[in-house]
What does this fold into?
Amino acid sequence: MPLRPSPSDLHDRPRKSHWIAVVLWSLVAAAAYGSYSGRLVIPDRFNPWAPLDVMATPNPLTPYKLSRARSDPGQCLAALAQTGMQYDVLPDRVTAPGCGFENAVRLRSAGIRIGAPLSLSCPMALSFFMWEKHALQASAQQHFGQRVAAIDHLGSYACRNVNRGEGAPPDAPGGSRSRHATANALDIAGFTLENGQKITVLKNWPDAAAGSAPSPQARMLTDAHSGACRFFNGVLGPDYNAVHRDHFHLETGGYGMCR
It folds into this structure.
């Protein structure tokens, strides 16, 4: 016959759990203070207060470090300088009510072909690099055994409102400004692999109604989309609405969303 816990055991369990929690939190607090004060040396990879290393393989601390770098103009530019991308720092400017940019760059080269230079906020440029290096290229290697050589985009900075697909023009009065209006968004339509193969969101995004297994192109796109959700605040694709049937909308600075 199995032994039942005595009433005293049942009474002591919450007390024991409380003290275990206190001890664990004390250890965490001590480690955090030791790291912050410099008395305890922790490798930068596992140190939440260490600057973002854009070349390091992402780990659970990367989103926090990326968010912290994006929120501070100096840290953002310092992290961007590690990327090897070629860009010019743009002066802050206001172009219209709700339009303009601060802490922005004119991206000329990103290691992959981007076509015409892009005006992006520093947080967007930094997130773009992290996504391209740590998610996009990985998905291309996994499904095709080669790298992405170029992206096909539909633009970044544009002084306009959110396009909700309701028939209203994007500059109609009373509409809310798009993240494009502050250089905090970029629309990606497709990719070109090293062998010249083109993969587009419009043609290759998986069709759930088809009932057949997704193609390698479709699997790469879904991986690139989910990977973007790790490095941008907002990601919208064809499953969101008809307006996005032909591109991924990537943005920083807004509410978290991955659709």
Remarks:
- The mean pLDDT is 86.
- The CA atoms of residues 55 and 184 lie 23 Å apart.
- The longest strand covers residues 185-193.
- Residues 1-41 form one domain.
